[in-house]
Structures are given as C-alpha cells and as structure tokens.
C-alpha cells in the first residue's frame, strides 16, 4: 500500500502527465517527485508510468491502479479527519467516576471552575457507590475518580489527593420526631426508616462502631438501609411526613431545606466522610488536567 507522499505524487502525475506541474502541485522539486514516483512503484511492485521526455503516461497497470489509489487517498483523508476529531474530543472531554456524596459537594464546583478556565471542556460524570475505581482508572474507563477509597488497595500507578474530612448530615421532614430531640444519637436516628446510597464496607464499619461496636450493632447495620439508591434526586423525594431519614451532605439537601419542609440533623457521635480524588500517574491530557487542578483548589 502506498504511503501518503508517494500516493499524492502518483495522483498528481497521473492527472497532469507533467513532472513539472505535478511537482508544483505536490509542493516538491522535480527531483523529489521523481523519488516519490520511484518509491510508489517500489511499494506497489510494478511500473506505474511510461516516462518520456516532457511527458509521462500511465502504464496499463498504472491505469488499473488509478481508481484504487483514488479510493485509498479518500480513505486517508477521512481517516485523518476522524483521528483529528477523536484527538480533539479526547483532549476536551474529562471522564469522571464518583460516589454519590460528591456531585454537589466537589464535582459541581470543580466543574464550574474548570469550564470557566477551559470553555471547550466537556464532562461525562458516572455516579455510583459500586464502582471499582482503581480498575476503571487503569483501564482508561475514567480519567479521575472522586470518592471513598478507604478499602481500595494501594497502587504506585495512581496519584491520590485527599480532601478535608467533613461530617455526614441527615435530613428529615420538619414533622419528624427526631427534630423534637435536643441531641439525637445515631442510635435514635437509625431506629427510624433510613434511606441512603449503597453502604460499602467502610460505611458499615463506621456506623456499626458508632452504634457501640457490638454484635447487635453489626446486626442492625446489616439490615440497612431500608431503601437504597445512589440517586439523590429520588432519595430527597422520600423526605415527606412518612418518616424517612436520608443521609448525605448539606449541599445535597440544600434545595429541600430551602422549601422549609425539610431540616438537617447532626446526630452524635458524628460520622465523617473520607473522600479523595484519584487519577492515573502522569495523565495530563488537557481537560482532565484542568479539572484536577480545580479539584485541588478545593483542598486549600
């Protein structure tokens, strides 16, 4: 198969039959054009032109090859265009995986700042508490992960960035009996129907310990939550007079609280998130780098 320069030289000479005109169209000297034609004939394995002084015409095999060469040239142009589109998309799109606690608290402010700094930036956000972040990073499925990596094995190929620990909050309808208590405990809170995203091992261990670390506490945690969903848009619809308590972060419940129908609860003892961001070491493509920098500014 012909490479780009010999192919271009062949097509121009086939069209003009003149070395001088073909060289001008190709943007090379006559001598360079002659070398490209010789290279083209070497690559296809047969003579393409009958060379005469002042005139070069296609051989029989050259004429047979001409439509093949035109098709090849068209395919090369299409391939170059598609490659360029992929290159531009790869540089402009950041693929982010995250746990359910982080979209409002970290992803949204970092994304807003990144889009101001890099107007062409686009993002794909995959929210789930059941992701395998290190594997997804290593496989290139995501560029950055933001979530709890407490029970994730360490790897030298992954760069980590820690965020400040913050207390997890709980929300309930203003008519909920917990709001009538001066200082509700976690035990008080979890005696009511509870809804939350998926609770992985870290959260179950933290809650069990906060409930006293007893076999009874572990048994209680094993039955939680009453309703499980990683979709906070759905979970906040449960904050009605029916008595559900939903766990999350203050930002998650901001709109519901603003209605005056929902209020936050901070029980004792407090339980805290353990959130970090992770990316492949040395990964610096444009959109991902800008997003990472804006996440980093949230740690200051």
Automatic annotation (TrEMBL):
Classification via SUPFAM superfamilies: Periplasmic binding protein-like II (SSF53850), Winged helix' DNA-binding domain (SSF46785)
Gene3D superfamilies in the cross-refs: 3.40.190.290, Winged helix-like DNA-binding domain superfamily/Winged helix DNA-binding domain
Keyword S-adenosyl-L-methionine attributed: no
Cellular component GO terms, alphabetical: cytosol
A GO term, aspect molecular function: DNA-binding transcription factor activity
Keyword DNA-binding applies: yes
Stretches assigned to the HTH lysR-type domain: 1-59
Keywords tagged on the record: DNA-binding, Transcription, Transcription regulation
Similarity-based family: Belongs to the LysR transcriptional regulatory family.
Name of the protein this chain belongs to: Transcriptional regulator, LysR family
């Amino acid at each position: 198969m012909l490479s780009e320069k010999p192919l271009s030289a062949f097509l121009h000479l086939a069209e003009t039959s003149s070395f001088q005109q073909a060289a001008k169209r190709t943007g090379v000297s006559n001598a360079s054009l002659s070398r490209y034609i010789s290279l083209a004939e070497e690559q296809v394995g047969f003579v393409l032109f009958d060379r005469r002084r002042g005139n070069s015409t296609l051989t029989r095999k050259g004429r047979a090859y001409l439509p093949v060469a035109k098709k090849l040239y068209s395919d090369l142009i299409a391939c170059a265009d598609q490659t360029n589109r992929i290159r531009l998309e790869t540089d402009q799109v950041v693929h982010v995986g995250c746990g359910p606690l982080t979209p409002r608290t970290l992803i949204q402010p970092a994304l807003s700042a990144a889009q101001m700094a890099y107007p062409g930036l686009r993002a794909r956000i995959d929210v789930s508490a059941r992701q395998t972040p290190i594997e997804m990073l290593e496989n290139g499925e995501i560029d950055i992960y933001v979530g709890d990596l407490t029970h994730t094995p360490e790897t030298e190929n992954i760069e980590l960035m820690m965020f400040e620990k913050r207390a997890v909050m709980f929300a309930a309808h203003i008519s909920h009996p917990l709001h009538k208590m001066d200082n509700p405990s976690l035990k008080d809170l979890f005696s009511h129907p509870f809804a939350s995203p998926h609770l992985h091992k870290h959260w179950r261990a933290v809650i069990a310990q906060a409930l006293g670390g007893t076999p009874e506490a572990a048994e209680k945690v094993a039955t939680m939550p009453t309703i499980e969903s990683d979709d906070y848009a759905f979970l906040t619809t449960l904050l009605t007079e029916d008595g559900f308590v939903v766990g999350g972060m203050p930002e998650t419940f901001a709109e519901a609280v603003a209605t005056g129908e929902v209020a936050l609860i901070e029980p004792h003892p407090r339980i805290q998130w353990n959130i970090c961001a992770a990316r492949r070491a040395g990964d610096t493509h444009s959109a991902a780098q800008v997003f990472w920098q804006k996440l980093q500014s949230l740690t200051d």
